[in-house]
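Much of what follows relies on a compact textual record of a protein's fold. A record is reproduced here so that you can trace the correspondence yourselves:

. . .
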Amino acid sequence: MADVTQVLSGLVLAQEYRGNVVRQVNRRAVALKLDPWKPGSGKNVAFAPIGSGVVAEFYNEGADATNFGSDAQASALLPWASCRALFHLSGLAQAAAATSSTPLGNIELWASNMVSAAGQLCSIANAAFYNGTGVAPNPVGLDVAIGSVSNTYAGIDRSIGANAYFRPNVFSDNSKLSFDLIRGDMAAIYIASGDRPDIALCSPNTLKAFQALFDPQKLYLAQTVEVETARGKVTLDAGIPAIKFDGCYFFEDKDCPDTRIEYLNSQYVHIEYLPMDLSGVPGLSDEVENGLEADDGFGVTPLGMRLEMLAKTGDSDKCQLKSYLQTVVTRPNACGRRTAFTL
């Protein structure tokens, strides 16, 4: 009888997948990671900016008091924005996943889909941080909050001279990117507000051009993987460049347009959300349910999310992961935007 070697093609084996599922989509939400998150309440986001009005003067001995004034207060209101991620799972998929051993990320299928949904929700919120129009159901982005000195933001018309205190700093003169240009921008923000920006967001191409200004042998001294903002200490993944220049950290963000630098003071810029608890869903462990947060590889981002089951119409379970949030700039004159420069 012939001696026949058993080869792989002749075997019947279970298909095994190594490790966890590997997500391929870039959902990094840099802006949301760096800015503080604050729980809100009520029907909208509301804060009260105060402009100058108090009168102080030098006066002659014995002169009557005739000039009086008080700082003017205004009401700034922003509506809540609504965002959600939808997914549904068939009964067969849930049963098959629960009885499989690999890949690890699909065994608890609800958790896997929730992580993906949270990452995508975080990603669209990060894009809206820049370009949100504020028209329901969209949040108000930096285009509205600090992109103009003459528009209306949070119900306050900044074209009116009395509201000049609520104007941002907008720089647009087609200058070439340089250290002096950036120093001039930050000095102008300091003159307007008394504070300097501690975060600057830009596109990868803009950060690359900024890096090129440094001596290549000294650039590594400016890079960091840990930064301190109003949110607290933020630890970044290796490979995420952050350049500290004159006390301000410069970051690249995929959602920030080219030839733009957003100068932010993290004391006065935050993401506000309506807190919600996750509701129970079938097949989801309490540990996962209570600990769900969006982690895009850049770090955990709280979203104040809620998972809700939707009406069941067949052999699938439908749900939505939703968040009510808003980008808030409480002091625009402590922030600024540099546009229309050459690299």
Remarks:
- The CA atoms of residues 294 and 301 lie 5 Å apart.
- The helical segments are 30-34, 91-98, 104-107, 109-131, 142-145, 179-193, 204-211, 286-291.
- The two ends are 77 Å apart (CA to CA).
